[in-house]
Amino acid sequence: ILFVFGIALVVSLVTTVVVFHIGCRVGSHSDVGFLAALFFAFLPYEAMIFQIAGHIDFNLQVLWFAVLLLAVLRATDRNRRPSGFEFGAVSSVAAIFNPGFLLCAAVGFIFAIRGRSRREMVRFILLAGLAHMLILGPVVAIQSARLGGFVPVKSNAGFEMYLGNTSEARGILQNRTFRAHHPSQNAEEFTRYGRMGELEYVREVSRRFRDSVRFEDVLDNSLRRTYNFFLGYQVKLWDASSAVIAVKEMFWKLPLVSLLVLAAIRRGRLESTEWLVVLFALAYSFPYLLTGVMERYRIPVVSATAVILALVTHAILEYWRQRQA
Predict the structure, then answer these.
(1) How far apart are alpha carbons 109 and 276 in whole angstroms?
(2) pTM, to two decimals
(3) For residues 305 and 43, is the Cβ–Cβ distance under 8 A?
(4) Which of 24, 83, 96, 229 is 20 to 30 Å from the Cα of 142, by its Cα?
(5) Which residue in 294, 289, 291 sits closest to 160, CA to CA?
(6) How far is residue 157 from each of residues 26, 96, 163, 186, 276, measured CA to CA in Å?
(7) Highest mean pLDDT out of 45-49, 100-104, 171-175, 183-187
(8) Contact status, residue 306 vs residue 315, Cβ threshold 8 Å
(9) Nearest alpha-carbon partner for 272 in 15, 72, 21
(10) Which residues make beta-bridge pairs with 293?
(11) What pairs with residue 172 in β-bridges?
(12) Smallest Cα–Cα separation from 40: which of 53, 27, 21, 55?
C-alpha cells in the first residue's frame, strides 16, 4: 500500500506541473498557471482518492485528463504547426487508461483543425490516425484475440449500461448495486461470468438490458447521474458533523459555480480556449451520465476546475489593480 501511495503522490506532483502549463496556455499568462497549480494542489477533491486504498490507482485518470487537455491545447495553438502524431499518441495512451478520453480527444480534434488549411488538416488527420494505429492497434488486436471477438479498447460498455440502470443503482453506483449484480461481489454472476467468458457474458447482460429497458427510467436515471456528477455529494461514514458535510457539499458545487462566475465576468463571451476546457470536461463526463456515477469518476475534472478558478481569480485581481491605479 505504501508503494502505491508513493506512486500516487508522485503522479499528483506531476499533474500539478501539467496543470500549471494548462493555466499558462488558457490564460496566456504565467500568473494564471501559478494560480491553477495552487488551486489544484489545495482543493480537497484529489485528496479524497488517498482516503480509500482501492481508489489510489485512479490518480492516473487525473493525470491523463490533464495531460490530454494540455496536448489538445498544444494542437490548437495557432502559433505553431499542429502535431497530429503527438496528439494521436497522447490520446491513444490516455484511451488505454480510460476509453472515454476518446470523446475528449474528439472535442480537441475539432478545435485543432478549425481554421487550418486543407493541407494542414489532411496532414494532421493522417498523422493522428497513424499514431492511433501504432498504439491502439496492437492493444485492440491482443484483446480481441484473447477474448475471441472484436473489442474496441474496452469490452464491458454494455455491462456498464446495464449496471448503472438497475433498480438498485438508479444511476448511482453504490455497494448494494455491486453486491446485487457485479461478478466481483455476486457469486451467481461470477459463476455465470466464468462459464460464459467475458465477451459472451457482456453480450448476454447487454441483451438483458435491452429487453428490460424503459426510456423514461433511463432518462430519470440520467438526470440523477447529471445532478450527482456536477453537484451532488455522497455523505461518508467518516463525515463527523453536519458542518463538515455542508463544507464538502459546497466544494462539490464549486466547479459549476466557478464556471457560472467566469461566464458572468466574461459576459457570456468565453475565449476559445476557455470553451475548449469546458467542452473537454463535458465530453469526459458524458459516458458516466449514460451509465453510472461514482464520486471518484468526477475527480479528474479538478484540473479544469482549478484552471477556471485561476481565470476568475486573475480577472478579479486585474480589475482590483486597475481600480487602484
Answers:
(1) 11
(2) 0.89
(3) yes
(4) 83
(5) 291
(6) 33, 14, 10, 19, 26
(7) 100-104
(8) no
(9) 72
(10) 172
(11) 293
(12) 21
Give residue 94's identity as a one-letter amino acid code: A
Which candidate, 43, 23, 25, places its Cα nearest to that of 33?
A: 23
**Distance between CA atoms of residues 276 and 37, nearest Å:** 19
Distance, CA of 177 to CA of 173 (rounded, Å): 6
Residue 25 sits at φ, ψ, to 5 deg, of -75, -40
The residue with cell 449500461 is: 161
Between the CA of residue 211 and those of 32, 181, 207, 214, 215, what are the distances in Å?
A: 51, 16, 6, 9, 12
* Total residues found in the chain within this entry: 325
Provide the percentage of residues in the chain whose pLDDT is more than 90.
Answer: 35
User: Which pairs with CB-CB distance under 8 Å and at least 24 residues apart come from 7-12?
Assistant: 8/49, 8/50, 8/56, 8/57, 8/59, 11/59, 11/60, 11/62, 11/63, 12/46, 12/59, 12/62
Higher local confidence (pLDDT), 187 or 8: 187
CA atoms within 13 A on the CB side of 99: 13
Residue 293, phi then psi, degrees to nearest 5 = -115, 130
pLDDT number for residue 94: 94
b (16+ CB within 10 A) / e for 252-279: bebbeebbebbeeeeeeebeebbebbbe
pLDDT attached to residue 54: 56
120-271-316 Cα angle (round to 5): 150
pLDDT tens for 146-178 read 887 787 777 677 888 888 888 888 878 888 888
**What's the burial of 246, exposed, middle or buried (CB within 10 Å: 0-12/13-18/19+)?**
exposed
Confidence tier at 52 by pLDDT (50, 70, 90) = low
